[in-house]
Amino acid sequence: MEIRIRYMDPRTVQRIDELANEKGLSRQEFLHAQLHQLAVFREENEREKRLNQLVDRNIQTMTHCYTAIREMYDILHFEESGEKP
Questions:
Q1: Within 13 A of 7's CA, how many CA atoms are on the CB side?
Q2: Which of 1, 8, 37, 74 has the CB geometry, 3.0–4.6 Å to 85, for a possible disulfide?
Q3: Which of 50, 23, 52 is nearest to 37 (CA)?
Q4: CA 42, 46, 49, 51: dihedral to nearest 10 degrees?
């Protein structure tokens, strides 16, 4: 699909060309990549947010498991040795 943008400020176009040149890209290639990134940014941002939430939940679960294992160890150690945990 073709997209055409009209009436751009010449300074803006010049800056776009400079940015594209710094990356070794044509204006077309640079703008294509930028528009694609803009289009998927929200989706990627939401995906990252969900991943961070999952990591947080996993850390909480691991903390609970550690606490439960530690409590079981203390109980077993007390039963074996007769000492208080």
A1: 0
A2: 74
A3: 23
A4: -130
Q: What is the pLDDT of residue 1?
A: 87
Q: What are the residues whose beta carbons fall under 8 Å from the beta carbon of 44, sequence distance 6 or more?
A: none
Q: Does the pTM of the predicted model rise above 0.70? A: no
Dihedral angle over CA of 34, 40, 44, 45, nearest 10: 80
> Cα(75)–Cα(47) distance, rounded to whole angstroms?
42
Burial of 79 (0-12, 13-18, 19+ CB in 10 A): exposed
Cβ distance 29 to 20 under 8 Å? yes
At residue 83, the pLDDT reads 63
pLDDT digits (tens, 9 = 90+) for 47-62: 999 999 999 999 999 9
pLDDT tier at 44 (50, 70, 90 boundaries)?
Answer: confident
